[in-house]
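[User]
If only I could read backbone structure tokens as easily as an amino acid sequence. I have put the entry right below:
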Amino acid sequence: MAADLADVPSVALMTELLRRMKCADKPDRHLILIGPPGSGKGTQSPIIKDDYCLCHLATGDMLRAAVAAKTPLGVKAKEAMEMGALVSDDLVVGVIDEAINKPSCKKGFILDGFPRTVVQAEKLDDMLAKRGVKIDKVLNFAIDDAVLEERITGRWIHPSSGRSYHSKFAPPKVSGIDDVTGEPLIQRKDDTAQVLKSRLDSFHRQTEPVIDYYSKLGSVVNIHAENSPNEVTVEVQKALSS
């Protein structure tokens, strides 16, 4: 361990020490963020992570990390993916179980993208119960489908720079043209109305029952995700302070 620390740059070491000191008095929190694509979870999760000293657990990233590290669960996940099969719920919950042993998860975690079904929620709760913890809050980023469609289908990007525009909220000076280079803007494949409809149908069918499941447990707080990012941040902070 000492040899490993000797290789860590001083600035990084001090930054981590200061983070741990700041986090020492923070209450433990175990959170789930639920919402359809484009509802703003990705904007809010880094803010919540930093404010409450939590680790951010995205199941896709965790599975890839487990595969790369060749952990026993990672090996099983790789076998499933190479066969073109879905990674089982038990395997995903096992990867989460492994991940929350990390020091960065000492104060708790934010789960984003999981659970997507009630069965997954039940398996997650069973695993956490064995650790003597439970989900404290489920933040439901509620937004009307029509508002979401306007928000997402109006997005355009300049592919080489990553500059983003919105046909209504942040339009380019000339429609379809990047302000800086004069090159054409593109719309990502996932930002079309057809793709969004398919993803929303899946969300309503599979994931909305998860909201009902946690509502019965008194864990759900509805967030008005159609508001501006700053307004949503204030609402999230209020929800987590209670």
